[in-house]
Specification:
Blueprint (H helix, E strand, L loop, with lengths): L1 H16 L25 H19 L8 H4 L9 H15 L5
Length: 102
């Protein structure tokens, strides 16, 4: 399932790149900083990206996860710091909500 989540995130980045003047380098997606000092998104762009990921998770895996929930935004280490941390957050949330999918 981790590969499917990665694919959904990667596809969302490709979609967003299609609309951006300044393209996101997708060579090392795993370590890509999404938000923060070195992140590729400002706050509004991050929300759009997260909505695209949520839609992909629902459409492709039947998972309804809120990536902008209080739990997500209150983490000590933000799940939006990198793609790897976002995947880890999604995987943890799916194990909590649907252990059979893990």
């Amino acid at each position: 399932m981790r590969e499917q989540v990665f694919s959904i995130i990667h596809n969302a980045l490709i979609e967003i790149n299609a609309t951006r003047k300044e393209k996101i380098d997708l060579c090392n997606v795993d370590t890509l900083a999404l938000y923060g000092t070195t992140g590729v998104f400002d706050s509004m762009q991050l929300v759009s990206f997260l909505a695209a990921v949520e839609e992909g998770l629902d459409d492709e895996l039947g998972l309804e996860i809120s990536l902008t929930s209080e739990k997500a935004v209150s983490q000590t280490i933000s799940p939006f710091s990198s793609v790897t941390l976002l995947i880890e957050f999604i995987m943890a949330e799916t194990q909590v909500s649907a252990p059979a999918l893990a």
